[in-house]
Structures are given as structure tokens and as C-alpha cells.
């Protein structure tokens, strides 16, 4: 069996977001903090896999309660997903021999960024390149990267399927639009896409509840399908549907507030909001 732990549910900036003086962040207590999105997976062969390396790596390893991961997987180069990589190095953890799984584009970026390149020289990481659709096995369990369209100034973006012995989980932290993601896989419906990969549990990009959280300019700069649009597309959850948990929530997202209308709407339709520390067995 694979044990999955959700180690963060926030968008790259975390919650509270630095310098946000608005009500969304003004009174966030210590126990209400949300770390940027990350996932910990332990397979039956004892290998441990961290998806995304955030600046809250220390807190997240405590939530996970595992030793250092033997494998780290990067989805893409946006800051919240990679800014914890340095913590594995000499100045902090002093790790050795972690396998760092990256796309070809991400590999080039790492080799060309002096702070990261030196960690390769020092043996902190060994790079392993994946390509979309690869089935990478650990014992009888598997990880499958899937290319998804997302702003690619620095690198491309991959979601991951984690296949345990009995169930499969999708980790999709970021993507631009459902139209683009679905059409890349020749699908028209979200259900059809999840069904194609036999997904039982899906952690899906829920950055914004609606575009009202954004100015018009930022809608173009940071496109993510809003949760209100995703659940309108899905409708009410059917008994045969996978469980969907929204993650990667922006600090402005009303889904942080369990008493908000947005939160109650998601729950009443049978969908869920991810929470830090939640565990799923596959
Ligand atoms: Zn992100
Ligand atoms: Zn805020
Ligand atoms: Zn991103």
C-alpha cells in the first residue's frame, strides 16, 4: 500500500501571504497557516517521495513524520514549488544522494542555475529525467508524469499520477485552463479525463474560487481555472466519481473559511477542500 500525506494546500505565496494587509491574511493564527502545495508519498518498498520542494520544507517534513525523502519530484519551476530545494544542501540539512526527478526543461534550468548546479556537484541530488507518460516503478507501485499546459516562462509543467496497489491518485497543483489540459488528452470532460487514468482521488488546482479575486490584468498573468467554474462543469458528485480535493488555494480564496458560502457549496455538491496533514491510502 502507498501512504500519501498532503503537506500543503496553499498557492505559491502561502497563507498568510507576505505583505498582505487585507482581511484574508490580517488575522490568520499560527495554526491556520497554510504552506505551499506539496505531497509526501511512502511506497511499500519503503521509498519516500516528496512532490515539490517548498520554503516550508521543515514544517512539512514534520507533518509527514518521515525521514528525509529518497526521491524529490518537481512539477515545474514556479517559485513556490522549488524554493525549498536549497534547504537540502550543506547550509541546512546536508543531504546526500537524493534522486531529483525533473523534466528535460527543468534539468537544463537546474544545471544552469549556479545555486542548484553546485548541489549536483556536491552530491546532494542526482538528476533523473522523466517524460510525460513514463511509468516509473518502485516495487509494484508506479509514478506517471503527465504534461499539462501552464505558463512556461522557465519550464514546462507536469501533474503526477501515483498508482498504489489498489488505487490511483492525481496530483495537479497548477494548470492554465481545463480546455487546454483536456484537449491535450483528447478529452472533452473532466470526468472523462480522470476516468481515462482510472483516478480514485484527485488533488486539483483550486487557486481561485472566482475571477473576482483578481484584477483584469492578473487574470491574464496568472490563469487558473476557478473552482466555481470547475464544479459548475462537474455538477453534483455521482457515487462512481473520484474524490476531488481542491488544493493550491490563493490567500484570497474563501475556501479557507469553512463557514463561507463557497466552502458550503463545494461540500454540498459532494466535492472537498484539501487540508494539511490529510492522509490517503492507495
Ligand atoms: Zn503554483
Ligand atoms: Zn491575503
Ligand atoms: Zn505555477
Give a written overview of the molecule.
The strands form two sheets. Strands 6-5-4-3-2-1-14 form a seven-stranded mixed beta sheet. Strands 7-8-9-10-11-12-13 form a seven-stranded mixed beta sheet. The protein has a single domain, classed as Metallo-beta-lactamase, Chain A (4-Layer Sandwich), CATH 3.60.15. The protein contains ten helices and 14 strands. With 282 residues, the chain is α/β, with parallel strands linked by helices. It starts with a strand and ends with a strand. The site of one zinc ion has 7 residues, from helix 1. One zinc ion binds next to loops.
Give a brief outline of the structure:
With 282 residues, the chain is of the alpha/beta class. Helix content is 24%, strand content 23%. It is globular and about 50 Å long.
Which key features would you list for this structure?
seven-stranded mixed sheet, 282 residues, Metallo-beta-lactamase, Chain A, alpha/beta, binds zinc ion
User: Major sheet: size, sense and barrel closure?
Assistant: 7 strands, mixed
Strand content: 15-25%
Relative helix content: 10-25%
- Give the topology string: H per helix, E per strand: EHEEHEHEHHEEEEEHHEHHEHEE
Give the strand order, joined by hyphens, for the main sheet.
Answer: 6-5-4-3-2-1-14
The number of domains is 1
Through-space gap between termini: 6 Å
Number of helices: 10
By DSSP, the count of extended strands is 14
Broad structural category: alpha/beta
Report the mean per-residue pLDDT as an integer. Answer: 96
Question: What's the topology here?
Answer:
Blueprint lengths: L2 E6 L14 H4 L11 E5 L5 E4 L5 H8 L6 E3 L5 H4 L15 E5 L1 H9 L1 H8 L3 E5 L6 E3 L2 E7 L10 E6 L4 E5 L5 H7 L5 H7 L4 E5 L10 H6 L5 H8 L8 E5 L13 H8 L3 E2 L5 E3 L1
Parallel strand pairs: 3-4, 4-5, 5-6, 10-11, 11-12, 12-13
Antiparallel strand pairs: 1-2, 1-14, 2-3, 7-8, 8-9, 9-10
The structure holds zinc ion (ZN) (3 copies).
Amino acid at each position: 500500500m502507498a501512504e500519501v500525506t498532503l503537506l500543503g494546500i496553499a498557492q505559491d505565496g502561502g497563507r498568510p501571504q507576505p505583505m498582505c494587509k487585507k482581511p484574508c491574511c490580517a488575522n490568520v493564527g499560527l495554526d491556520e497557516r497554510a504552506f505551499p502545495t506539496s505531497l509526501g508519498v511512502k511506497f511499500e518498498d519503503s521509498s519516500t517521495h516528496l512532490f515539490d520542494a517548498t520554503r516550508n520544507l521543515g514544517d512539512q517534513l514534520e507533518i509527514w513524520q518521515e525521514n528525509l525523502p529518497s526521491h524529490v519530484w518537481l512539477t515545474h519551476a514556479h517559485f513556490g514549488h522549488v524554493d525549498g530545494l536549497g534547504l537540502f544542501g550543506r547550509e541546512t540539512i546536508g543531504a546526500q544522494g537524493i534522486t531529483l526527478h525533473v523534466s528535460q526543461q527543468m534539468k537544463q534550468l537546474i544545471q544552469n542555475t549556479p545555486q542548484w548546479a553546485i548541489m549536483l556537484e556536491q552530491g546532494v541530488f542526482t538528476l533523473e529525467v522523466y517524460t510525460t507518460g513514463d511509468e516509473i516503478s518502485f516495487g509494484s507501485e508506479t509514478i506517471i508524469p503527465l504534461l499539462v499546459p501552464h505558463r512556461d516562462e522557465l519550464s514546462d509543467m507536469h501533474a503526477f499520477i501515483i498508482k498504489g496497489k489498489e488505487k490511483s491518485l492525481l496530483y495537479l497543483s497548477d494548470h492554465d485552463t481545463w480546455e487546454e489540459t483536456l484537449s491535450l488528452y483528447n478529452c472533452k470532460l473532466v470526468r472523462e479525463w480522470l476516468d481515462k487514468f482510472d483516478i480514485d482521488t484527485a488533488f486539483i488546482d483550486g487557486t481561485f474560487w472566482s475571477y473576482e479575486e483578481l484584477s483584469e490584468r492578473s487574470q491574464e498573468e496568472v490563469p487558473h481555472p476557478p473552482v466555481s467554474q470547475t464544479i459548475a462543469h462537474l455538477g453534483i458528485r455521482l457515487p462512481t466519481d473520484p474524490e476531488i480535493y481542491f488544493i493550491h488555494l490563493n490567500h484570497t480564496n474563501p475556501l479557507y473559511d469553512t463557514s463561507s458560502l463557497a466552502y458550503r457549496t463545494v461540500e454540498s455538491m459532494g466535492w472537498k477542500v484539501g487540508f494539511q496533514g490529510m492522509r490517503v491510502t492507495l
